[in-house]
Amino acid sequence: xxxxxxxxxxxxxxxxxDTFDVTSPWDGRLVGRVAVPTDGQIEEAVAAAYAVRExxxxxxxxVRAAALDHVSRRLVERTEEIARLISAExxxxxxxxxxxxxxxxxxxxxxxxxxxxxxxxxxxxxxTDAGGQGRLALTRRFPKGAVLGIAPFNFPLNLCxxxxxxxxxxxxxIILKPAPATPLSGLxxxxxxxxxxxxxxxxxxLPVPNDRMPALVQDERxxxxxxxxxxxxxxxxxxxVPRKHCTLELGGNGAAVVLGDYASDEDLDWAATxxxxxxxYQGGQSCISVQxxxxxxxxYDRLLPRIVAAVEAQVTGDPGDDTTDVGPLVSEDAxxxxxxxVQEAVEAGANLLTGGKRDGASYAxxxxxxxxxxxxxxxxxxxGPVLTVQRADGEAAAFxxxxxxxxxxxxxxxxxxxxxAFRAHRALEVGGVVIGDVPSYRADQMPYGGVKQSGVGxxxxxxxxxxxxxxxxxxxxxxxx
Length: 481
Prior knowledge:
The protein has 481 residues and is of the alpha/beta class. The protein is 39% helix and 22% strand. The chain is built from 15 helices and 25 strands. Strands 15-18-19-14-13-21-22 form a seven-stranded mixed sheet, sandwiched between helices. It is globular, with a radius of gyration of 24 Å. The mean pLDDT is 97.
């Protein structure tokens, strides 16, 4: 008999009246049964977060840092167990799941470091004008209030970490809602936080069903919302609470540009390998996976067969097998959607070079060329193991092709030309430009987010802490400066 996983209400375990099952997208087996909080329990969590907000903001930095360090260490100790759990509930190959645990280790470590140095205060002289003589301004940052963190399924541990760790580091209470498809990894963070001495109410992890979220989103006691997920849902949340502070990390259709100077056999082999790997890692279910390749006409004909061969070399299958590169998508419905988008593109005239086949929740790594610009596959985020390749006549045309998208999360540019790198940084309408590699690189301490329809605000521990806080000025008078 499968035991029920409790949720975390104001720092303690709790169970509700209902449960739901979490199943493996690979083989349908039951991974776990999760308790659902009642409306009364949700209210208790919100009330606790609101009540503790001032005391938690005043908690000494060393207390918050110690708790974050503890979680980081415990994640290291339980790496293999948690990686297997991520793989089971998400379908992610276990080798990628281990990497996700390692990133979450870093997120909590970075947050502990930031907790110790953040908000130290900045002094500013005011006697630059006569009216300010004898005055000094001291600026510090204070939490805006309790945070509602809403995490997606594709990185079920690390993106929960990116909500929780900065909030704790900044002294802001947080209520985390993990994705309904993958709540178990987020609940593990609760197990580790429960081993710390953080005050009751400083954190809760509530697997609230999506249809019960509007009331929580609207609650005025949660003035900050940090959401990672789809464009449609993210902007619906922002539109529904125009007076709240919202950070939205939304979708993308990441482009990898290969410029004409990247032309040796070694260069093209490297580019093809990286493109193939990161169009398919996590089953393509990453906001910065490679969806579009834009290759200079001078290298296109030599690059394309290399990409196809590298994609066909990806090992698909059981995500629990260490040799698997590409597992299933999160659900069969997700795979059916990808299948429909590819079929639409082919019917509109796209050339399917490899892949294009679905088996349950699994979709074969796929490469297409000549995809019409008005197809869904060209316009939207596929969030699956599908790659389109197009030719561009020169650098300017390649950069223009990147910018034609409504999204602007990250882009990769394969070039050896330093001046081209700076031109890319100036020209590309994205939140991050990666030179010499795919757009799929993210360091968890750097500012991460997009422009256009890819969202607002930035994650990355210190940058999220700034989002969760505001500046408050203290003016001291009568000083002998």
